[in-house]
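Aim 2 progress update. The chain analyzed this quarter is reproduced below.
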Amino acid sequence: MNKKVALITGGSKRIGREISLHLSKKYKLLIHYNNSFNEAKDLSENLKDLGLDCKTIKYDFNDTTKIRNFSQRCIKKYGSIELLINNASIFEEDEIDERLLVKNMNINLISPMLLTKYLGEHMKKNCGGNIINIGDSLSLNNPWHKFTGYTISKSGLNILTKTMSKNFNNKVRVNSLNLGPIMKPSDKKINNIYKTNYRSKDGISSILKFIDYILKDKKINGKIFNIDNAERLMINSY
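Predicted structure tokens:
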């Protein structure tokens, strides 16, 4: 039986890497990266050494003008895509800096929106598929201080999920996983922003279980799941 194809954006490191590893036995993988060439190469080679099918593709999602072309390039890698996980994002303090506001919106919202449109249309024509957006559980209920662009862009993913889930007539299901503090930010300047965080192992395990749950249950569409240990309900001063 031929394996389906999964595109994981930002799939070479951190949470994206864990998702890639988890899906690698069930799917042919297309791992997107931008600045993480070495990580993408190492992950791809490791999976190939295990006899698993994996390819990589580079793109900077801050450039939203060529997303349609990028989507076509992705499809050509294997001939089809049945699963898209919009995981790539940035978490940068902007304090309403115009350039960083636009960068956050481009990478965290506009690019996922366009990928969902173009790859969703492809899936709809080719027997259906799944799209899973990776969001942030605090964005709507307890916005991040000094992270205006990030907060707005991640909040927008929730509306994107609800809207696009209706556009494909259930042939393509669109759902979201809104995460809490699973891992500390990689930026050393802000990596103490979390007052509490999961043990990474527990948080990652929950993410992977929910992905499996969404993919297995064909009635789940337009849903937003919070994996955050109820952090979104807590008053804080982030």
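The two ends are 49 Å apart (CA to CA). The helical segments are 14-23, 37-49, 67-78, 98-125, 138-141, 148-167, 200-216. These observations will guide the mutagenesis experiments scheduled for the next reporting period.
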